[in-house]
User: Fold these one by one.
Assistant:
Number 1:
Amino acid sequence: REAVEKWTGRICPKIRKKLEKNAELSGNCFPRDAGNGIYHVQSGPNSYIVDIIGRTCDCKSWGLSGILCPHAIAVCRAERIDPEELVHKCYTIETYLKAYGHNIMPLRDRTHWDKLNGMYIHPPLFTKVMGRPATKRRK
């Protein structure tokens, strides 16, 4: 918790490093406006369609991870949008503090645990079979 209080900015440091790496890769991406927040991005021999409003890209990286791909960062650069604003909210410092901000109370050792009068659960029976295990054959 003390380390998190030293973090600055809106998003976590590891995610910021990933954004910086993707920003470097976005140097060879060239976006062209198609209207209504949709862009056609040329990246080498490949082309991608990026929807800033819908927060999607054809490479599917942005939708899977929530972190902007190089194509989306190129569009953000063209539109003068801060890429950190479009990162999914689960990567914000505020959300991190909500998840890990509470105290976890330590447990006492096993001798102080309460005895419960429940059934004893035995491990499953295991029989070792001789030879190589059989495999399912597909016809």
Number 2:
Amino acid sequence: MADILLHPDRGQAAHSITVVHPDDWTGWLGNQSPRTRTAVAAHQLTGKAGDRVILPGNGVEDWSALLVCDEDASSPWKIASMPGFLPPGLYRLANGEPGAAMLGWVLGQYRFDRYTKPADQGARVLLTGEPGRIDETLRLAAATAQVRDLVNTGASDLGPAELEAEAEALARRFGATLRVTQGDALATGYPMIHAVGRAASRDRQPRLVELEWGDAAHPRVAIVGKGVCFDSGGLDIKPASGMRLMKKDMGGAAHALALAGLVMAAGLKLRLHLLIPAVENAIAGNAFRPGDVLSTRAGLTVENTNTDAEGRLILGDALCRAGEDKPELILDFATLTGAARVALGPDLPPLFTDNEALASELLSAGERLGDPMWRMPLWNGYDSLLKSDVADMVNAPDGGFAGAITAALFLRRFVPKGTAWAHLDVFAWRPTAKPGRPKGGDAYALRAAFQVLSDRYA
């Protein structure tokens, strides 16, 4: 996102934006000039949230904007609808500093135009008297845009190799080291990643991408992201309607890459270990089958009861690898289960963790930043649902009950006991546009997770 979208307020000539809460509408309107009241009446505004209008002044360029908004003062989305409504130019808020709303202003100008001719729309620049917040806001906006861009990109243009290239670019930018285990080399060390990805074409071979950065003396933190670049469902093939959006099944990897970039840009005092198991769940003669018993890096065996429950398989090997270096904290992001969407819908990712302090930090940060999540139980009573008659466990229990929970319980078996770990089952997609959040790929719980890491390791 271009840095021209935010600028320090040095008294430049700019159009003002007045934000009025619906509860204050009547009082505000009663204090306005006849000209303003006439303009409001002409546009039939009633003071409901979302009302907005250009208000005339004394000259051609002497005009201002009005927005009726019921968002909390701390919401990043308070003025996010305005960039798409206003012409290019300089703006400032008439009543107070934008604060957190700077983020929504920038993201309100996000466009995914990889496959279309970019429109030359010009910049809407917001002035702020808090210039110290500009750089951080732009970094958060860029990280969110990165997630959106990656998820919106078609699978023909974004496979395992392209995810590797994203990690390689991060490594070059921040002086990190990159290690990639690919193709048949995965068969012994990462057998579940290999099994899921082996049916893909030669140019889309599965791989585990690992990036390490930071002082080895600092606390170690692992960030893991599910990178299924396209999910056909495998031999348990999805219907067309279920496959339509499966370009987004690498949304967890997109979150992990963006979070890693934020960590390194902020110079947090931690030893970062980023792990992206990147595969395409394809169909071919060598595809893994229902009923196959899979080996794992952890030494457990898994009866594969559903080839469309592949994300937890590749994450299992990656989580095991992350735990081998004894991290203080593991965070994983994954577009893991439809059951999570049934339970909480698209906007609210479930948070799974046994660590009370970590749960409190993540939930609190999410509430403060307008980046919410909802804690779901790692209910031990459901662990028996993973029982297999022929292996140590199944990957997907029959019946579908508590699907998000049993998926998280599966992952927990690959995390070292006593290690602080949180699993976020993100949707990575916004089915309906909201101010500052267009329909398409989107980031969930990214800003909250970064805030927790910043609070712990700044």
